[in-house]
Amino acid sequence: MASIEQSLSQAMSIDGAMCAALVDSNSGMVLGQAGSGVDIELAAAGNTEVVRAKIRTMQSLKLNDSIDDILITLGKQYHIIRPIASNAGLFFYIVLDKARANLALARRKVQDAEAMIKV
Q: Which residue of 29, 50, 98, 116 is 20 to 30 Å from 83, comparing CA positions?
């Protein structure tokens, strides 16, 4: 299994990657980060609320399912939030430059990086 740094490095190798982080969704704390261009501490705290809200909504709807990823599309960026299946309470967060990123390939590479995490 890869370290946090190795997984973040793999995520940063995605075309268009600006920054990436591993976040604890219980506290909103960043456990590891790479890149720049976004206040990752602020983004981690805000996206923790996004993950919590989606989980609450799924529970209210009695959906017996899990989140693969959450995609936020902005004018110039993609933001991908991917919960770590093997470590409940953690998620990957990556920001991509929309003009340079291939979204389908990026989602696949984030999935690969997520699968490598061992915390």
A: 98
- Tell me the two tokens of residue 108: 């696949």
Cβ atoms of 74 and 97 closer than 8 Å = no
Compute the distance between CA of residue 35 and CA of residue 114 in angstroms, rounded to an integer.
17
**Six token digits for residue 80:** 């991908």
pLDDT tens digit string along 30-68? 999 999 999 999 999 999 999 999 999 999 999 999 999
Please name the residue ranges forming H helices in 1-119: 4-12, 40-60, 103-116
Q: What one-letter code names the amino acid at 83?
A: P
Residue 39 phi, psi dihedral angles, 5° rounding? -70, 95
User: Whole-prediction pTM value?
Assistant: 0.91
